[in-house]
Design brief:
alpha+beta, 5 helices, nine-stranded antiparallel sheet, elongated
Amino acid sequence: MTGRAPLPSWQDDLPGTLAACWSFLARGVADRRSGFHHPVISSIGLDGAPRSRVMILRGVDIAARSLRVHTDMRSEKIAEWRADPRVFILGYDAGQKLQIRLLGRVSLHHDDAVAEAAWQASRAMSRVCYGTAPAPGSEIEAGDAFALPSPDDAEGLEAGRAHFSAVVMQIESLESLYLAFAGHRRALFSWNAGGALTARWLAP
């Protein structure tokens, strides 16, 4: 008995690996213990330098190959994505021993049905983040020199709707790295403009 965890059934199967990755991402939306609940999302800054943030994964649409996060329209990443919509997403779940890297392009939704549905599905604890004053990134005199509406203040929470944006990331490639004592497995999946999939193994 080695005590080692059994290898997953999908480790040597490309379609199975892709399906497992999407399943883990989808699970990360609701499971706060999942490493995929809070991926690192990177963009290109207005100065050409990379920018990375931890964001909460709010939605996954496997059929559409898209992920969704939420942000404040006043944040600097909105201007960055308007200038260059490319986005890189990195997630790692230690329990699954799985790293997933995704490349895609964002579409911003502020005053449309996508944003409204996302806002209505958000809890009060999440909505308070969009009612802050001053705007995110503003210089302040002290660490606590900003205001948040109370979760019990319905009018204050709704005021934050004007700053709320749903960000949908259309995925163009997905790379997985499964770490195993017996041998790592690395795979790359990419889709062309017509949606055709190319899948191949890579050396870890």
